[in-house]
Amino acid sequence: MVRRVYLTLYNWIVFAGWAQVLYFAVKTLRETGYENVYDAVEKPLQLAQTAAVLEILHGLVGLVRSPVSATLPQIGSRLFLTWGILYSFPEVRSHFLVTSLVISWSITEIIRYSFFGFKEALGFAPSWHLWLRYSSFSLLYPTGITSEVGLIYLALPHIKTSEMYSVRMPNTLNFSFDYFYAAIVVLAIYVPGSPHMYRYMLGQRKRALSKSKRE
Question: What is the pTM of this model?
Answer without folding.
Answer: 0.93
